[in-house]
Design brief:
Elements lengths: L1 E10 L3 H12 L4 E4 L16 E2 L14 H9 L26 E2 L2 H14 L3 E3 L3 E7 L5 E8 L2 E12 L5 H5 L4 E3 L2 E10 L14 E10 L5 H25 L8 E4 L10 E3 L17 E5 L10 E4 L11 E3 L9 H6 L2 H21 L8 H10 L15
Helix pairs in contact: 1-7, 2-7, 7-8
The structure holds flavin-adenine dinucleotide (FAD).
Flavin-adenine dinucleotide binds next to helix 1, strand 3, strand 6, strand 10 and helix 7.
Length: 391
Amino acid sequence: MFQKEYDVVVAGGGIAGVAAAIAAAEEGAKTAIVEKTVFFGGLATTGLVYAYLQLCNGKGTQVSFGLAERLLHASIKYGPDTLKKKDWGRTPWQPGDGTYSTEFSPASFALALDELLLNAGIDCWVDTLLCGAEKDGENRITALEAENKSGRGRLAAKAFVDATGDADLVRRAGGATVDGMNFTCIWAMHHDPAADPDNFPASFPLRYLAGKECTAHGVGGREVSDFILKSRTLLRNYYDTRYASGEASRRTLYPVVLPAMPQYRKISRIVGKNCLRDGQAMTRFEDSIGMAGDWRSTEKPPWEIPYSTMIPEEIRGVVAAGRTTASEGEAWEITRVIPCAAVTGEAAGVAAALAAKRNVSPDDLPYEDIAERLIRRGVKLHLSDVGLAGR
Ligand SMILES: Cc1cc2nc3c(=O)[nH]c(=O)nc-3n(C[C@H](O)[C@H](O)[C@H](O)COP(=O)(O)OP(=O)(O)OC[C@H]3O[C@@H](n4cnc5c(N)ncnc54)[C@H](O)[C@@H]3O)c2cc1C
């Protein structure tokens, strides 16, 4: 049994968790991050999802700032990129520079994330599985249980962030969650002579194969195992078909890197104090912690993200971040992607650090205090802050 105490513990080291940990540490909290794989970045690195979607509304207005922007820059620090603006880093993005998004190498991004976390002084626990939550009599999480090579451990903190991608911490604490539906698919990197050499990354293009079949949720051990094996079967069938047709051989077309986590889009999210819903794009929320564009079309407007969608209905002492925040329908399509994971992650880290400092639960914090710190960090909270008229 190993025991540690922190101000803030972040469960899950995907983009949301990394943003939360960095923000909490920068706000002065003694912070730890717990990740079950050996890489930070979650789906963006371990899952080979190599596209950092846009920080703008597609019509020339930037809407996501702060860590969402810093992490986009980190994703290409060790090269390469597909930004249209090629002098990136020297002059700020301007509306005429094209969509503010890029593709990246998952390996480069993983290296840059390590660097950011270590430079921020965060206690990084990789290869460490969250496997339980302790609560006090007021339903407030006081410690998480983790398992790694040392055996079973207990990481206590004054505030927690659930950035597990599937609300694992809240669920293990007994909180209510809602499951999403997914279809079998696989993104993998392979060598392909038919690939467009101008495409990124030229040597190892990604192969995206989507299955037609709708699968169940991703919260059961059996289901996850079946999903992973089915998705890899898709890939084998693809190679078999192309080899059989004679257009490629095993010497020219072959897999190079496979995703090391299940590529579920929507596994499970918290039941929050509030829920972001269809039709709420372009809506002003008085407790907005930042904004995210709609990646599906430049004709679709951006969204403000309310803090109340990050607070579980019943479980206290914890803020949700990333694809686990409370949203449904098309709103979940927005909150689940990389830029919005960074937006909610940063807000969760700020809130957790503040809660720890005051020794209160994140749901007890006045929104104005969180907003004041986010603004100081360069985050724009409302559509009106970037010249867009919210409803
Ligand atoms: C096929 C596919 C294509 C996509 N395409 C894009 C795209 O083009 N652009 C885009 O922006 N987004 C895309 N997305 C969505 C996006 O990649 C993710 O939803 C986003 O990265 C989620 O970030 P997150 O931090 O919320 O969660 P995750 O990336 O899931 O991170 C959660 C982390 O928590 C860890 N964890 C979970 N449980 C535990 C536990 N019990 N103990 C310890 N650690 C734990 C996981 O290992 C993981 O590292 C795509 C998703 C999929 C599946």
